[in-house]
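Hi R.,

Here's the chain you asked about this morning:
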Amino acid sequence: MTKPAAHPARIVRVANFVTSRSGGLRTVLRHLGAGYLAAGQEPVLVIPGERYGDTRRPWGREITLPGPELPGTGGYRVLADRRRLARLLADLAPDRLEVSDRSTLRWTGRWAREHGVRSLMVSHESLTGLLGQWRLPTGVARRAADRLNRETLHRYDRVVCTTRWAAEEFARLDGPPVDLVPLGVDLDTFHPRRADPALRERYADHTEVLLVHCARLSVEKRPDLAVAALARLRRAGVPAVLVLAGDGPLRPALARRAAGLPVHFTGFLPDRVALAALLASADVVLAPGPVETFGLAGLEALACGTPVVANAASALPEVIGSGGLAAYGTPAALAAAVVRLLDRPEADRRAAARARAAEFGWPAAVAGFLRAHSVDAGQVPAAG
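And the predicted structure, written out as tokens:
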């Protein structure tokens, strides 16, 4: 029998594929944790790392368990020692369990049931899309995803998706409905006032178009499409320049592909204000990944007043709305969408981007997650 949540409720959150240099997921975990804390709850985050650690953070207690590094992922680690994690969970005695990994941490749903703990799985990705990226035939990928998603629905009390696009693969199953809770964006840090003319001049002069791709340089993000779209634009006479903000296993191959093109690699940008300045200084941000379930970097670009060209196959068209354009995942289509955006008056396209971002706030996201946990959201502070 599930025990009632005390006040404050101890919400233990477990996640894989998080590093000090990871982007969207770490941002989400931090903002939700800070929101839970501000709402009077007790968040505890458990993630993999190089060594054990137990630290108090602005987003709550953070525990690091040693986990092996996955080859070829650029530093991602996983919580591979089930026994140690199970012992830690028992010691923490959570009122609620929140899991952000539908692959290697799926077993935690059974642990929660056995210990009378209400559990929630957060769907940060489309399994159908990811399996398709591994070049599985469409039918095979769909059937495999359906089987794994049925297991998720049965093992956890609730499943949260951040977009209707992400929820679709659950909706086609005969199971309980999932919770739809859009994520938020930090509208203060990511703001048009961050635009920096000096920073822009570092990459492009006043006659050039500055494009930015802000994501991990890995296969699922398709940074190669951004480089290929730039090449298309240059051949069409558009004086575009591309900045790839981020790092990852594809960087050497991308550097070879970009030879002879005006492509700049910044590496990982840990300073959120510096990242905001780059996004706000760009003319267009490219988000060509086909399996983005929410696309937080795209939303951060909109908050900076910069329109986004997104892959039509992803969830981003649902997120960006009138703040950008969706295009099929080909270099020609992405380049054409950039040109269409640039044809709009700059003030109009930037105002539309910011207005769309303003519809997404972290307080609403925090309140939605707490409702999914069946925990009183209380008075979630409006800032953030």
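The mean pLDDT is 91.

Let me know if you need anything else.
M.
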